[in-house]
Design goal:
The chain is mainly β and about 300 residues long. It is built from two helices and 18 strands. The strands form five sheets. The chain has a five-stranded mixed beta sheet with strand order 2-8-7-4-5, with no helix packed on it.
């Protein structure tokens, strides 16, 4: 009977200790945060701006949308990322929203900010200089005076031939281009999709850069039929966005960017296995079981 009582006492003591650890962990939890900021918060269509955010606690990637259309996706709980105003946006106020999953409750965490489109990006036409106009000189006639003798003399008229000075017209010729491509890097060609890593492990960041889309066109990135990212093309038809794989699967994967044209790139997923230690809770339970056995052996 005394042995049974001691076993029950040890189990109850261990349970109370575990509950105190859980309560202490919950007391240290910080309040939820979901904030989104834009800099600048206004500008013309096709211009660039920066998104800053702070989501806590956040599980999985954070996706940003422009009035419901995906513009970029990130994995860090806070930071900054560049984005581009859609080229077809008309002057008005638009909502930029960030979404992720609350790591504690499983409910969505959402933050948003407003961007004001003020107009469209315009370029002034080149100016053309008009060559100067040359006026011909007016001929000058110099009459001679008559003499003072009684015999009148016939006046002599001297006519100078007109002199015309012609100024050669000048035409503005643009100077020859001095832009020489750098030998240290290869310029991005149209219809290319470049990934900044040839291989990636779970949790590592991966970025895709492409060119060849229409300005302001929506770009959707997929791999093996699943969406892994999205963005909008800037005024040059290019884009840069993060790539987030929804599942971990070792091997070579092809990434396809679709914006009316299809751009492709490939990356190797590397999966490594590791063994970790046992949970601290299991160690505590083993401790109390050994304490109960000791109490039985030495009453």
């Amino acid at each position: 009977m005394r042995i049974v009582v001691r076993l029950i006492f040890g189990a109850v003591t261990g349970l109370l200790f575990l509950l105190s650890l859980v309560g202490a962990g919950n007391a240290q939890q910080s309040p939820y945060q979901s904030t989104v900021g834009l800099k600048p918060s206004s500008g013309p269509a096709g211009s660039s701006f920066t998104i800053s955010w702070n989501f806590s606690p956040c599980k999985g990637p954070i996706s940003f949308t422009w009035e419901g259309a995906a513009i970029t996706s990130v994995s860090a709980p806070s930071g900054q990322v560049g984005a581009t105003v859609p080229g077809n946006a008309t002057p008005d106020s638009y909502t930029v929203t960030g979404n992720c999953t609350n790591a504690r409750t499983g409910q969505p965490l959402t933050g948003n900010a407003t961007f004001r489109v003020t107009g469209t990006v315009t370029t002034s036409p080149p100016t053309t200089k008009v060559p100067p106009t040359t006026k011909p000189s007016v001929p000058v006639t110099t009459p001679t005076r008559p003499g003072t003798t009684t015999t009148p003399t016939t006046p002599v008229t001297t006519t100078t031939s007109p002199t015309t000075t012609t100024t050669p017209s000048t035409t503005d010729t643009p100077p020859p281009s001095t832009d020489v491509p750098s030998t240290s890097s290869t310029p991005l060609k149209a219809n290319d999709l470049v990934l900044d890593r040839s291989s990636v492990q779970p949790g590592e960041k991966l970025s895709a850069t492409g060119k060849g889309c229409l300005p302001g066109e929506r770009v959707t990135l997929t791999s093996d039929g699943e969406r892994v990212g999205g963005a909008y093309a800037d005024v040059t038809g290019g884009f840069t966005t993060a790539v987030e794989f929804t599942r971990i699967e070792a091997g070579r994967h092809t990434v396809v960017a679709d914006c009316g044209v299809r751009l492709t790139g490939a990356v190797e997923q590397v999966v490594t296995s590791s063994s970790g230690g046992q949970s601290g809770t299991l160690v505590v339970l083993v401790f109390f079981v050994l304490a109960g056995i000791t109490a039985i052996r030495f009453p």
